[in-house]
Amino acid sequence: MRADTATALPAPRDPAAARRIGLAVALVVVLWPAFELAEFRPAKLLDPANLDIVGRFLGTFFPLALDAEFLALVARSALETLALATAGMAAAMALALPLALLVAESLSVSRVGPARRAWLGPWLRAPVRFALILMRSIPEIVWALLFVRAVGLGPAAGVLAIAISYAGMLGKVYFEIFEAGDTRPARAILEAGGGRVSAFCYGILPVAVPELVSYSVYRWECAIRASVVMGFVGAGGLGQQMELSMRMLAGGEVATMLTAFLLLIMLADAVSAALRRALA
Amino acid sequence: MRPGAFVAAPWLVLGGFALAAAASVAYLGVDFVALFTGDSARQMAAFARGFYPPEATPAFLARVAHGAVETLAISALGTAAAAAAGAALALPAAGRWGALLKPPARLALNVLRAIPELVWAAFMVLAAGLGPFAGSLALALHTSGVLGRLFAETLENAPRAPTQALRDAGSGATVAFLYGTLPAVAPQFVSYALYRWEYNIRMAAVLGFVGAGGLGQMLYVSLSVFKTQEAATLIVAMIAIVAVVDVLSAWLRRMLGRSGA
Q1: Predicted confidence (pLDDT) at residue A7 exceeds the cutoff of 60
Q2: Distances (CA, A) of B242 to A144, B30, B198, B200
Q3: CATH number of B58-259
Q4: Cα B7 to Cα A209, B18, B102, distances in angstroms
Q5: Residues 163-202 of A with CB under 8 A from B
Q6: Domain for residue A207, yes or no?
Q7: What CATH number does residue A187 fall under?
Q8: Which residues of A touch B209 (CB under 8 A)?
């Protein structure tokens, strides 16, 4: 728009104002009860007692706790996190593969033609599917809390929590990979009279394995993140130590462990990215 | 890749992973066999049986409903605050306020994003006391890092021509942004915020484990005092919320997609 035509126009009007203001007002009206429900009280942040705690906590953040004994503890916890995520992932993969095989219809013998015990298929598939949904729709940290109550504090609860919730996720994705790929080789084996397992091993696995492994590596990276957080409910590793230090308001220790946590995540990120690039 | 060629890489990765897993189990020193046999297996079975039947007295269901609404409120407020803070940080992070402010804004976004919600929640419980307010703050802090980065990317990819045209016609920087850039990026901002809200509802349900309100806090308390039947109801409520949100958001996306918005 050129300046000389602008002067010829009537008084400037904001075409978008009414709509924008209307939307903003509507948002505030909708969110208003939420402020009450969530006890939104910014004044609490300035409460002298809370300020005192935060002040003391943040005041001890620097310098980081770097004495040899504490660093050794952090290293042990980080290694524990790594180990529990890896062990949990291995268990999850071992659990997910047979479950995914059970629900994969592309391996269904009864779809090829008449088969003995064909009626068994849907009856077997439905509960397995339901179990997979249940396993992944309960958040991993809830599993962790449940297992802490069942088997006690420590990494065992973390391993089991990752095994269960990640088996639910992996099972679904594995199943999708089996179904999405080229299913003709598996079908040919089935039609030639091969069994379900050999159809899988020779018909599907050779094509699907890069994607299976690549996705599992990505999930391993997620499991490391998750296992740090799970420690906060007592499931072992770095998170559990961080929770203890936080409870004692030992800011320097928390700062060191946050740094260790970020380094661990970056390391897992890099390893996972490199592996996936090699697999692509 | 030649079809039929044997690909070694995935099998090598799998083999390496199997070794790592064996080393991990050895390092952890947990006897998983003992965990699932004999006495501890019986104890675990007894623990699992305790969840049935879920607690369903009207009084408790009313409390669960309140907890569920509280969870929704925490996630809504946290996401709304994060969208505002994220947008405010995205402007410098996209280099709109000069090259000097870009690196510190990016660093701030990265730090906010790198610390998980649950760790923020543990911090916020110290700063604001137990309760849902700490949960909203924790979600707001982590999510502003996530949304800020997405918003900044959107801003960087936004077409420059409309803004430049307004500037050339003599409008100020703020007006040029509001009418030249905002209309182009707003739909993307809203869709990122809504997607993140959906995710935050799941998160808000578990933040209570460190005392940040909502269903999570109720579940943590129930399990602490071994009221497993109450815990069962709360877990069902959590799954139900997530399922309802999933269905609603899928439906909403279809509707929005159909109207072309």
Answers
A1: no
A2: 19, 34, 8, 10
A3: 1.10.3720.10
A4: 9, 18, 44
A5: none
A6: yes
A7: 1.10.3720.10
A8: 141, 145, 232-233
Q: What is the DSSP string of B194-252?
A: HHHHHHHHHHHHHHGGGT--HHHHHHHHHHHTT-HHHHHHHHHHHHHHHHHHHHHHHHH
- Helices then strands, counting H and E runs in chain A, come out as 13, 0
Q: What is the ipTM of this complex?
A: 0.87
Distance CA(A259)–CA(A265), nearest Å, equals 10
Residue ranges covered by each domain of chain B? 9-49, 58-259
pLDDT band at A260 (very low <50, low <70, confident <90, very high): very high
User: Shortest CB distance from A31 goes to which of B30, B76, B127?
Assistant: B76
Say if the Cβ atoms of B13 and A213 lie within 8 Å.
yes
Range of the domain at A125: 68-279
Q: Is B184 exposed, middle or buried (0-12, 13-18, 19+ CB in 10 A)?
A: middle
What whole-number distance in Å separates Cα of residue B158 and Cα of residue B154? 6
* In-domain check, residue A45: no
Could you say which of B7, B21, B44 has the minimum Cβ distance to residue A210?
Answer: B7
pLDDT of residue A105 exceeding 60, the answer is yes
The answer to whether position A19 is within a domain reads: no
Residues of B in contact with A139 (CB under 8 A): 202, 205-206, 238
**CB distance from A222 to chain B under 8 Å?**
no
Give the pLDDT band of residue B18 (cuts 50, 70, 90).
very high
Among B residues 167-226, those touching chain A with beta carbons less than 8 Å apart:
169-170, 179, 183, 202, 205-206, 209-210, 213, 219-220, 223, 226
Confirm or reject contact between B115 and chain A (CB < 8 A). Answer: yes
Residue A26 domain flag:
no
Write out the two tokens for A264. Answer: 């661990």
